[in-house]
Amino acid sequence: xxxxxRLASLWRRLFGDSARAFGTLGLVLLVLLAIVPARDHFRxxxxxxxxxxxxxxGRDDAVTLQRRLQSGVQQxxxxxxxVVDRCSSCHVAMKETGLRGVGTEPYRPHPQIxxxxxxxGCVMCHRGQGVATSVEEAHRSTKAWEQPILPARYFESSxxxxxTDQLIGTPRLNAGRTMLSRYGCxxxxxxxxxxxxxxxxxxxxxxxxxxxxxxxxxxxxxxxxNPQAYSGTATMPxxxxxxxxxxxxxxxxxxxxxxxAATPAPPASTAxxxxxxQAGTSLYGESFCASCHAVQxxxxxxxxxxxxxxxxxIGTKAKPEWIREWVRNPKAYDPGTKMPHYRxxxxxxxxxxxxxxxxTDSDFMTNVHIEPATAQQIAHGKLLAxxxxxxxxxxxxxxxxxxxxxxxxxxVGARPLEKIVFLPGMQRSLPAYIEAKIKQPRSFGSALKMxxxxxxTSQVDDLVTALxxxxxxxxxxxxxxxxxxxxxxxxxxxxxxxxxMQDLNCFSCHSINGHGGDxxxxxxxxxxxxxxxxxxxxxxxxxxxxxxxxxxxxxxxxTDQETNTLTDYILTAYQTPAFERDSIKTAADSGAIEExxxxxxxxxxxxxxxxxxAQKDKGYIGPTLTDVGSRLNAAWVFEWLxxxxxxxxxxxxxxxxxxxxxxxxxxxxxxxxxxxKK
Amino acid sequence: xxAASSLTLAILGALTLSDSCSRRVAEPVTKPxxxxxxxxxxxxxxxxxSTIGTPLDQPVVVQVNNSQGAPVAGAxxxxxxxxxxxxxxxxxxxxxxxxxxxxxxxxSLAGRYQIAASTTGAGGKTVEVxxxxxxxxxxxxxGRQLNDTYCARCHDSESTAERVSNHDNLIAKPxxxxxxxxxxxxxxxxxxxxxxxxGPALGKSAEMxxxxxxxxxxxxxxxxxxxxxxxxPPFQSREAVYAQR
Lengths: 678, 245
Known about the structure:
The complex is a heterodimer of chains A (678) and B (245).
Chain A: H1 2-15, H2 18-41, H3 44-56, H4 62-68, E1 76-78, E2 83-85, H5 117-120, H6 123-126, H7 135-139, H8 171-182, H9 185-188, H10 211-214, H11 217-225, H12 227-230, H13 243-256, H14 274-286, E3 294-296, E4 302-304, H15 314-317, H16 320-328, H17 330-333, H18 346-357, H19 375-388, H20 390-393, H21 430-439, H22 457-468, H23 473-476, H24 495-504, E5 511-512, E6 515-516, H25 526-529, H26 532-540, H27 560-573, H28 590-603, H29 628-631, H30 634-642, H31 644-647, H32 660-671
Antiparallel strand pairs in A: 1-2, 3-4, 5-6
Helix pairs in contact in A: 8-22, 11-13, 13-19, 14-18, 16-18, 21-22, 24-27, 26-27, 28-32, 30-32
Chain B: H1 2-20, E1 39-44, E2 49-51, E3 60-65, E4 76-80, E5 86-88, E6 91-93, E7 99-105, E8 111-120, E9 126-136, H2 138-155, H3 180-183, H4 188-197, H5 217-230, E10 241-242
Parallel strand pairs in B: 2-9, 8-10
Antiparallel strand pairs in B: 1-3, 3-7, 4-6, 4-8, 5-7, 8-9
Helix pairs in contact in B: 2-5
């Protein structure tokens, strides 16, 4: 009963008459008004802004810095990009390049990047919650805000949201995209890049339609159990097959193989004499097989290129008669192969066959003991091969390639967290999920089909970077911010020369009109560059032009008619439209030659990279120029000196923007270098 | 009410921040070592160049020695590093050769890092070795890419399997980019000038060609940033070193 009385008396004391009521209300309002500034006083950004003032105190430029500091909550608002970022409320010194070397966050200036900071805001590249004004909510993922800051090692993925070309600043993104193609991820997963082009695989898995000609069921069994045991660089993943499944699949794969109609009678595998073994090794070297294929040396290191498969244990895998026929003409077995058709004679074929046959490893097949296949095993093997999607990568008789076998990855970098099933104990973030999926796909369920890839941790980071770039940013940007993509070239040379170039697989190494490999020079304008006689001789015996180069053009043993066809075609078809091939005539003007010599050795110091006088010059970055006068065209040399990148983009020679007079004298000097006359 | 909660949050935030700056790795279970550790030394893996947030290419190896300089097996090794540095494994015990190998991932800030490996010596005293590592930021790594393509062929005297060095073929021997003793004395504008306009711009050899028409401005600036980042000794003493205080 006392409580209502007490309340009543309190009420009277505070609001008993108008003066009391006025005073009390006034006090309440004062307190309420004070809360607003007081609240700001306790905000994190307020503390950080105060901290910044402490940090710059005592610096020479403190006054300037303090004047530029804008206090209060700061916001970057870009309506057309839907960007609202308040990061600069705490990161107050992002634009203060004078503070380089400051090591405390949030006060470090932003490093130089190709875009201005106001152009796209922060969140577009760093992710996180731009509108949040507390450290926790801006950077980490909480219940209401699910987008955490992107870990530093994946930063390059942000560039890939718009850019699809290989930027120099994004090595990790480039490597990741290359891997998606090279490891065959895009056989099963479809992936469309921001420019609308579909990522195509580059790994070229072999057809199995005639695999019985090539190898044995025992080898197939050992290989599918663990491809990396055969070759550490194999891109085929490990499907973690049980012994029984591997037995049945190998039975099916051999059973479906139909032999090539015109297989000649197998020659007995020849035991080579020591001299022949040496000659075989030399021929392997002279033919520059190592430009594409690697072999383990005595120290266990791989020596050679990675265009073709590793050959360390090829003798264990391939049948001798298959090796011989393959080297004779790879196109007969696999019309789509990247391997060139060397024109070896029978003696050379025996030598190469002997060399490759000797590359064996008895350990690889030690534990393979399989009984002859039963019809039941073959049928089960076919079922397994269908379920696991073997035919998506390999051509297999009787199996069709299934479409949409695995989830589309085009928007994987924008997948909302609520649609992801995380494993217990896993960090709740998209990068962590993608990383785990690549590292141990089967940990998400033993029934999952994705195989186990053998890749290093840094490669996993590359892949995650490339996949995180797969957002829908590019499609939501205004048209003026679109980055143009690179249309894929489907250039194919025509006619008999075209067929010859296909047969020799020039495009495995050389690129022409945007189509082909990047191991060797781009030949789009080769016809303008070189002289006919030189090209004819080069095809007969392709001496390398660059002494320091390790990968070299092989000798294909072409006939006179073949070299003529190729030379005529190149000189006709591959001409630059930029200038006339014969626009510069070089007369033997000794004055100009001498002036050119001065320029070569003094002003431009070309001898740093090129050799003109084999006795005196040593530079070996660029091609040797001792006989450049009989190799190149005067007009090409003249234009090249004026701007090499305009003739061959990406070439290493620095662009001197040389004037016409200097270029003319140097051209005269270079064209006088005819090499030693025979 | 809200004021109070923001106050608590602010305090908590500050506490978390100051706490996270001195993250300490849990003490491992220590077995009595065969001999008493007297010193811990770096065997390999120091002075590596990585990019922010990525693991170093090579593992770091440290060795625990006794007072006679002989390796001590079974000594516990702990690590300290700045916020964001990850050690894998986070701690451990030396093997029979007295060595312990671990992988290091640097933090997300570009710059110099100092990591410390320590063990407990005689009388419970901690002996420690400090190892320097470097994390490149965006601009520095872009400079590194350009360096690998254009500069290293002459400026790096070491040849690799893919690239034969041209260093010894030149009359004026190019400076290695980490030659801080020399390059730290060259100003930014001089470096920009020699890269842009070639050696003669500073009265040096014409064997150094001009790159102003080959590389763009940001590329050349990135090269300077890279040269500054990898300088040994460091370019500026005021430069931050990320280590646990």
